[in-house]
Write a structure and sequence with these properties.
The chain is mainly beta. It has one domain: Golgi alpha-mannosidase II (Immunoglobulin-like, Sandwich), CATH 2.60.40.1180. The protein is 3% helix and 31% strand. It is built from 1 helix and 8 strands. Strand 2 and strand 3 form a beta hairpin. The longest helix is centred in the first third of the chain and has 4 residues.
Amino acid sequence: MSSGFEDPEPANVLHPGFFESPEADGEPAGFEWLDVNNASENIVAFIRRSPDTSREIICVCNFSAVPRNGYRVDRLGNATYDLILNTNSDSYGGTEGVSINNDAIDLPPLTTLWFAPRKATKKSPPRKGTKSTKKKTSTKRARK
């Protein structure tokens, strides 16, 4: 996750095609609650996913006028996520008050955050004609 937030983009630019296909709208496979019973703090957290593409976004929303420090989203600690939308960024008139430390988030008031799993980079296979770094073992037998 990045701690320096760049200017966020609208949802259709952040994840092109993610919200264009409503194939999972209204289907259990397209949605999962992470925190639905937190009325006392006015926070909800959920996952929105596309079953066809396996892409997902974690959404965390603080609907309170009070900051919530140390709010935990266990799933963020299990993998590497990038913050892709921060409604508290200065481009939205916010204060840049979001702080993220593994799975703990300091949530400013009236803030929504979106996190997307970081895409793994694939290692390219060695090209033909390149030397191997493995040592070759000798098949010759010692003479008696």
